[in-house]
UniProtKB/TrEMBL annotation:
Its main location: membrane. The keyword Transmembrane applies. The chain crosses the membrane at residues 6-28, 40-60, 66-88. This is Multisubunit Na+/H+ antiporter MnhF subunit. It comes from the Bacteria. Residues 96-121 are annotated as: Disordered.
Length: 148
């Protein structure tokens, strides 16, 4: 290897570049969305990138003073994710209940329409039967008041 360049420096530079690119992509996803869950995951990725950046800084400077900050960031990310997941679950449950109510109303309307159609069919069948029996009576002479 070339004097003055060590493997740790190269690794830190590559890791820093990758973390920076990942953070930029996460910001793009936060801005573009489209859903709250996409933004949640991108926020988690961004916080992870921040934690990785702090870890890289710890490696470069050779200290451990930022470990409490890393723990606080991890806890914030965890509790934020749980809070948003609960919110989305409640929102999804309310949406599901609304859709079920709408479906029940549609089913009831369809059942009423089917019942009305069945009643119309039954009336048509009765009328056709009465017409047919009236035509049969007219041919045989029954029901016209004439006696054979």
């Amino acid at each position: 290897m070339t004097p003055g360049i060590d493997l740790v420096s190269v690794g830190v530079a590559v890791a820093g570049a990758l973390v920076l690119v990942t953070a930029l992509l996460a910001v793009v996803r936060i801005v573009r969305g489209p859903s709250i869950l996409d933004r949640l995951i991108a926020t988690d990725v961004l916080i992870s990138c921040l934690m990785l950046g702090l870890g890289i800084e710890m490696i470069l400077d050779g200290h451990t003073r930022t470990i409490p900050l890393l723990v606080a960031l991890a806890a914030t990310a965890l509790f934020g994710t749980i809070a948003v997941a609960r919110y989305v679950t409640k929102q999804d449950r309310a949406e599901r209940e609304r859709l079920e109510r709408e479906q029940a109303e549609r089913n009831a309307a369809e059942a009423a329409a089917d019942a009305a159609a069945d009643d119309d069919d039954a009336l048509t069948d009765r009328r056709d039967a009465l017409h047919a029996s009236g035509a049969a009576n007219a041919v045989t002479g029954r029901g016209t008041g004439e006696r054979a």
